[in-house]
Amino acid sequence: MFRKMSVVIAFLCAAGVYAQSPRLRADNVDEVFRAMTLKEKAELVVGGGWASLFSGFGIPFTGHPRVPGAAGVTNAIPRLGVPQIVLADGPAGLRIKPGGKDEAEKRYCTAFPVGTALASSWDTALVSEVGAAIGDEALVYGVDVLLAPGMNIQRNPLCGRNYEYFSEDPLVAGKIAAAYVRGVQSQGVGATAKHFAANNQETNRFGNDSRMDEATLRAIYLRPFEIVVREAAPWLIMSSYNSLNGERTSESRWLLTDVLRREWGYRGVVTTDWAAKRDTKRQIAAGNDLMMPGDALQKSELKRAVKSGKLAVAQLDTCVKRVLELIVKTPSFLGYKHTNAPDLVAHAALSRRAASESMVLLKNDGCALPLGDVRSVALFGASSYDLVAGGTGSGFVNKAYSVSLADGLRGAGFLIPSALSDDYAAWAGKKSHRQKSGGFGPVQKYLGLGALKEKPLDVEYIRRYVSQSDVAVVTVARQAGEGKDRHLEGDFLLSDVELSLINDVCSEAHAQGKKAVVVLNVNGVVETASWKHLPDAILLAWCPGQEGGNAMTDVLTGVVCPSGRLACTFPVRYEDVPSAGNFPFSVRGEKPKNCVDSTVYAEKDSVGYRYFNAVGAEVSYPFGFGLSYTTFAESRGEGSVRVTNTGAVAGRHVVMLYDESSPMRPLVFFAKSPLLQPGESWSVAVQKER
Ligand code: BGC
What we know:
Bound molecules: beta-D-glucopyranose
Shape: globular
CATH superfamily of the largest domain: Glycoside hydrolase, family 3, N-terminal domain
Number of domains: 3
Strand content: 5-15%
Distance between the termini: 78 Å
Largest sheet: 6 strands, mixed
């Protein structure tokens, strides 16, 4: 009897507490926070686990996520009206699982050009448009926070995630990231600038210690983040997996509080990267507010630390408040009713435009491009028929389709010998012809297939198809993904099969009085110096997103005048790269050599073109390089630059100003012109950055 009564009393008390509890509103964060128990505070700063990421794959015990395939969720606290929020990747488009039994129900997302490509457009307005479209898809599919942009410096061409990142230059990386963040957040969802900081390799990514002096760190590796914080105020920043000078970034109070918040004035939330190595109480004490994806152990660690006095409750409170302040801005809190129906047609058109604006024309001897009277194309290279739209890992996007170069050319009315395309289709059909890219092994099929290996062809075969066509085109492709750095052989360097293909196709075309064009469908820098003399033209198309083949066709045919410029250097040899001696160099099939536990940034701020400028070393294609189908004249006055299109077709020009007083010639300003008709001029006011 007594027992029954106490249960009833406990129930009534709990109901009373529940009824009296404040409900979260945008203007009562403090009140709600004061009403929270220690348990609830731990619930809030530790995420809701892996459920959403693994849902829909038939893995048992993975919960009932709201958005299958999203990377994570926070925990709701119903008593206080605190909703769960949903976080999903990633840079080149939203990464969620399509689900749905029939096509009409599937939640496809638009695959946009990868980060490196977007930066090569040098067009901040365009990048904001792309950000806004990705933000819109997030909103419409029920996601509150996008885990992008990736914005680490491209320190070395072999970093497996360079494709997600923007540039080797901190000003370009920072400005493009700020444009992306403004776009995403214009839709009322949060962006996450990642990975803070000095996360420049994938080898030993959970354990590597990036070591450098403070001046280098600030000038090169922190600067893009400083720009994005000051200019775009991302709702979140993701601390990185690596350590920095001996301390994990998620546990560094110097990085997350002294520099990020006190110096730069950051007011948002810092989240960990997913399942980073950790000491949860040190993370909280450092100012890392949110632990993702979160597990039960972290919550007990936190509660124990507070109870034993090892963690001051005030430090936990600071993080709790920041997470609440994030939540009140989200669509989930604001009661947004998502429709699961984004405008995929409009976004595909934007993806196509962004891709064509990002492509870099590296060579165009004898005006081989745009393709003039050409009607038929001898199209070689496996990826001409099987586009590499983007990368694998968290940068993968579940798109409805992708357009290959063959599709794009055919769509524009070109003929491709059908027996040639049938042979390539048969090659693409074999699983064994796919390369593994990225570090996820068995689950890679959910995260993006590897690029196709090249098909060896004999000269007779090539001759036959070149003779049936007006021009010869060869595509070379590369794909990369998180968890693994790129190799030198067969990745940065072209494979023997690829080199023979380029060589044989170019010789046959030239022997028959025809032009040969190479298209690079690559995630990042590849070796070009040894073979670039062979073709008449080289178009660097990057991993251009789902509309890649159409965008390539637009540039090859002159529908779009190429205006992309390199935001990274193409060196002559890998060994010339300033960090080559202290990057985990790995040979396929062997364990990486050197720098396994720590990587010393011995080249200091001599990163990319800064180094090549300072030492006057030859490169294959320099930073800022890119040809056009037209010509421009620049006249530089006091505080402004005037650009005139002096050629015969409409085009766009990128103004770049460098600090000539320094041997490194760092970039201090850039701006992209609108489309200028022949004879038309445009002026831009110059605001040099330090
Ligand atoms: C990646 C992050 C990503 C997260 C969630 C991590 O492995 O490093 O960039 O946002 O997973 O998918």
